[in-house]
């Protein structure tokens, strides 16, 4: 391993080894905490879950929904041309990609509807998972909320004081 010359070593701070070790210790304390590892595992599972839900929406839900419209293409491919592109020759664009490649300004309402449906399916699936977890573990993820009697903001039903206006919920302030 190459070494620094004496002249180069005098330029380094005297406690560089200690500072480097402290920085490494701080990094490992941060990166290897339980919370960070749990978040990493959660993100990996969420990515896999999103892939499954996206496939469910694209392959199962959207094909029947696209039958509602008069054209026969998939819902993702539905669009409206707002301004024609440079290569437009009067017959229209067959696909959204063709329109965008030609420089046309398009409103891709099919993609938007597809993403809204995907959002609702993911939200419903997460709600069902939370309900099943609460049922199986007797520890509900979904917390009940009520409105504060004084400020009308939503707070936990188990709260003794409002986190917003700090008023007592059991009638001590009267």
List the helices and strands and how they pair.
Blueprint: H1 6-11, H2 16-31, H3 34-66, E1 80-83, H4 96-101, E2 105-107, H5 109-137, E3 145-147, E4 154-156
Antiparallel strand pairs: 1-2, 3-4
What's this, in brief?
The protein is mostly helical and 174 residues long.
Descriptive notes:
52% of the residues lie in helices and 7% in strands. It is mainly alpha-helical. It has a two-stranded antiparallel ribbon. A two-stranded antiparallel ribbon has the order 3-4. A hairpin with a 6-residue loop joins strand 3 and strand 4. The radius of gyration is 29 Å and the shape is flat. The mean pLDDT is 82.
Mean pLDDT: 82
Structure classification = mainly alpha
* Largest beta-sheet details: 2 strands, antiparallel
Question: What is the subunit arrangement here?
Answer: single chain
Topology as a string of helices (H) and strands (E): HHHEHEHEE
Distance between the termini: 77 Å
Helix content: 40-55%
Q: Write down the overall geometry.
A: flat
Let me know the number of strands.
Answer: 4
């Amino acid at each position: 391993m190459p070494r620094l010359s004496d002249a180069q070593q005098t330029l380094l701070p005297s406690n560089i080894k200690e500072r480097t070790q402290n920085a490494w210790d701080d990094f490992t304390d941060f990166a290897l905490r339980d919370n960070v590892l749990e978040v990493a595992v959660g993100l990996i599972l969420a990515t896999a879950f999103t892939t499954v839900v996206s496939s469910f929406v694209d392959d199962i839900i959207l094909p029947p929904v696209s039958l509602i419209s008069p054209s026969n293409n998939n819902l993702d491919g539905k669009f409206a041309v707002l301004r024609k592109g440079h290569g437009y020759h009067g017959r229209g664009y067959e696909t959204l990609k063709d329109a965008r490649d030609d420089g046309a300004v398009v409103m891709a309402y099919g993609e938007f509807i597809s993403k809204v449906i995907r959002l609702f399916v993911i939200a419903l699936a997460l709600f069902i998972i939370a309900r099943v977890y609460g049922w199986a573990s007797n520890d509900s993820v979904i917390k009940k909320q009520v409105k504060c009697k004084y400020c009308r903001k939503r707070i936990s039903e188990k709260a003794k004081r409002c986190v917003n206006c700090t008023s007592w919920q059991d009638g001590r302030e009267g």
